Structure formats: structure tokens, C-alpha cells
Sequence to fold (174 residues):
Amino acid sequence: YEVVRELGHGGYAAVYLCNDLRNGNRQVAVKLLNWTLLSPKERTEKEGRTLEVWQHIRRDYLVAKHLAHPNIAPVYEEGTYLGRPYYTMPYFHRNLRQRIDDKSLSLVDILRIITETAQALGYLHAWGIIHRNVSPENIFVDDKGRAMLSDFGLAAFEPTSQNSNPKAGIPGYA
Fold:
């Protein structure tokens, strides 16, 4: 991959716009674990947190990889770079937050995005998956105007399972 620029970062990973040199130079987003984004305490404890953070990235990748829905952002591959896990997905030019902020959405656009996101969530729920991180930053709009739900790092499987923490997620959105 050839890095073009950083697109953003969250609690444990950074996302980069890259050219995929092995696949016709297509543009992809690469989500890469970034220990420097962790607090000093978390960096000190990083050896103990490696498995936990790796599991978030693996969950994010595996959920998207094994589900086929027109409004769930697909993923291409996973791997490690300098010991840090990453995965690749299509590059979407703008997320819903950016579209809201620049007021470029018509009422028809808003209704379509809400409907398509609800359909993606319904599909996940039918498979026993709770997203727990639905926010405008995790909904992208592709070149055809379709809503694309992404970021499954906090997903829970079955609401009664041990890995389901009802307090996890983003307050106000989850």
C-alpha cells in the first residue's frame, strides 16, 4: 500500500487513505492499530491490552467480512504491519457527519440514509449482532448515494452473551 494521507483516528486506531498497488491502484481506507493514540497509562499497559485491542480490530474486520448487505461497508483483507493489525475497506469520500455539517443533504437524502441504515441494523440484529457504535461518523455515503454502515469494533453477539456490555458504545448514538 502507498499511504496518501491520514483520514482520521479514534480511540485505538488511525485510518489512512492508501493506494492499493496490488489491485489496480484502487483507493482504499486502511485502519491500523496505533499505540500512540492510547493514553500514557494505556501505553504502559499495552502488553496487557494487546489482546483486547486486537480483538476489537478482529471483531470489526470479521463482522464486516462475513456479512453481505448492500448497506454494510465491505472489507477486503486484514494483516499486520510492524506488528500492528490492520484491515482494508473501500475509501468513502465523506461520512454522514461531514454531510450534516455542510448541509448538503436534501430531505429525500436524509430519509434514504435513515431507511438504509435501519435496514443494515435490522440485518445485523437478525444475525444476533448489536452494533453499539452507530453514529454519523460510522455511516458513510458511497458514490451512488447509498448509506454504508461501518466500524464493528464494539459489536456484541447476542444481547445476553458475556461479551455484551450494555454500557459500551457511544452515549447518545449507541
Remarks:
- Helices lie at 40-44, 46-66, 96-101, 107-126.
- The longest strand covers residues 2-9.
- Residues 15 and 31 are 4 Å apart (CA to CA).
- Strands lie at 2-9, 13-20, 26-33, 77-81, 84-90, 94-95, 129-130, 139-141, 147-149, 156-157.
